[in-house]
Amino acid sequence: MKFTLWRFFIFTIALLLTTGANATTNVSCVYETIETKNSVTNEHEPRNDSQKQPSKWFFWRTEKEIEVSNAERSFGEKWINNNQRSVFYQALYHDKKFLLDFQPADLKILGKQADWEMRSNLFPQSLLTQLERKNTTKFNQYDVVRYEGKVAGIEYRVDWIPELKLPARVEKNNSNTLIITELKEVYMLDKTPYKQTSTEEYEAMDYADIGDNESHPVVAQLQKSIGIGYFHDH
Amino acid sequence: MAGKPNTAGCKDIASQLIDLKDRYGNGLEVALGGGRKNFIQRIDGADPENNGKGERLDHRDLTAEWLADYKNSSYVWNQAQFDAINPDTTDHLLGLFNMSHMEYEEDRANDIGGEPSLSEMTGKAIEILEKNKKGFFLHVEAGRIDHAHHAGNAQRALKDTIAFADAVQTAYEMTDPKDTLIIVTADHSHVFTIAGYPTRGNPILGKVIHNDTAGNPKTDHELAKDDMPYTTLGYTNGLGFADLSIGGDTRYSEPGAAGSRNDLSNIDTENQGFHQEAMVPLGSETHAAEDVAIYASGPGASLFQGTVEQNVIFHVMNKAGRLSKRSGLTPVK
């Protein structure tokens, strides 16, 4: 009997640890991304010649939904994961009170099937494990672990918050471009001052219906400007 | 439905379809297609396939209402359930096989839940409807021919057209032309062109090959004035050329390429991912304005002669089925 209980106890601990490891913290974050183009003037001396304005963006995450929005809150994207099998995507044109609905089949044919773990953690775990673990620091109350290394010709320096499973800072440097993404603010979702914009009253259109709506004012405008089904990669 | 139309009192089409029984007879007997999200609530788990949410905010589950409202009724959302339907014991069948539109015929085999073909749906519908001794009206639409043309993808448009032709054949073979009027037509055309002079037997999706002076096919593709080959099929507007791994609606997420020529020498234009060249750059290919054909068989079919207004179709149906007379309403002259 003791042996059985002991095994049950170990199993329970293992289960709790596993659950803890997979649990998603519901958070709201503000990130800032800055991109710098390098042009090489001579072989040994890269010259920094153009730096884009830093772009701020919002990130909201629950177990089933991930949403991002630009700083102006005019455009956002939402990924909805119902059963760990099918991911739906919405392009949210907040300034037009309009959203485009992408079905899993649409994402499949577009080759845009969302890597949920990547979207949820903003950095692929498979890549993180290839980097070398360095020192530990703090971001607010959270422990941060530094990871560094070069994978496929790209140098990474990642400050990782294990508790949130999110990066505090990501430096991605290839020969042409340096992209730095930094966490500026983080809140538990129910305490955030940055609420998600409700889309309940938005006009919704299926991605497959775009072609038959050439005279729709929003569709026409989108086709002329930023394009249909704009997928942002941070 | 959200926003202005809803607050203005407009009813969404899905609820109109279910509520039809409150206005006309005992409502619809058969409705098969896509658009499932418009029938189920916006709550977790509402959708049986994806465990996800629908779009309805009025607390109505129209699929449940369909089952509750009718005796001998069924609701199906995948191929296996559809195949299991016994038409002899089913009087009302609702089939919603996709949250959005059903797949193109080209992509149907890849659908997760499985979708019946247009021909299969037509056959099942007729088997259920023909039990009514008073006759029936069945509307069959191949709606994605239009979508594929908008995307500038002739391969999918033509494949869906073939699926539609199969459905017409099924309807023709399952009914008797002595008592069943079948009308086949379109609600509009597209700016879809067929360039002249490819040799007989040249693949319709292929590049043009001419005949030589003796009337025999040449071996090389014909070259345009820019020394590049050209396809038999093309569009006068739209997003234009693309050679994608998967064609169709994917085209909307790629840059437009209309208004200029592309060297198609090494492009497989018969591949499903090929999108034909277009002249005027637009966000999507457009409808066109030429007359469309009306094909018919059965009682009243001979009334379709020459060029007619579209409303003539109604009058022919009315005459063949004696609809207004049987309805007891004022006869339509």
- Provide the structure class of chain A: alpha+beta
Q: Report low-confidence residues of chain A grouped into runs of 5 or more.
A: 1-21
Helix/strand/pairing category of chain B: alpha/beta
Strand line-up in the sheet with most strands of chain B? 1-3-2
Strand content of chain B: 5-15%
Question: Distance N terminus to C terminus of chain A?
Answer: 54 Å
Number of strands of chain B: 12
Order of helices and strands of chain A: HEEEEEEEHHHEEEEEEH
Structure description:
The complex is a heterodimer of chains A (234) and B (333). With 234 residues, chain A is of the alpha+beta class. Chain A has a domain of 141 residues. Helix content of chain A is 20%, strand content 45%. In chain A, strands 1, 2, 3, 4, 5, 6, 7, 8, 9, 10, 11, 12 and 13 form a 13-stranded mixed beta sheet that branches. Chain A is globular and about 55 Å long. By secondary structure, chain B is of the alpha/beta class. Chain B is 24% helix and 13% strand. In chain B, strands 1-3-2 form a three-stranded parallel beta sheet, sandwiched between helices. Chain B has a three-stranded mixed beta sheet with strand order 6-7-10, with no helix packed on it. In chain B, helix 5 runs parallel beside helix 7 and helix 6 runs antiparallel to helix 7. Chain B is globular, with a radius of gyration of 23 Å. Chain B starts with a helix and ends in a 6-residue tail after the last helix.
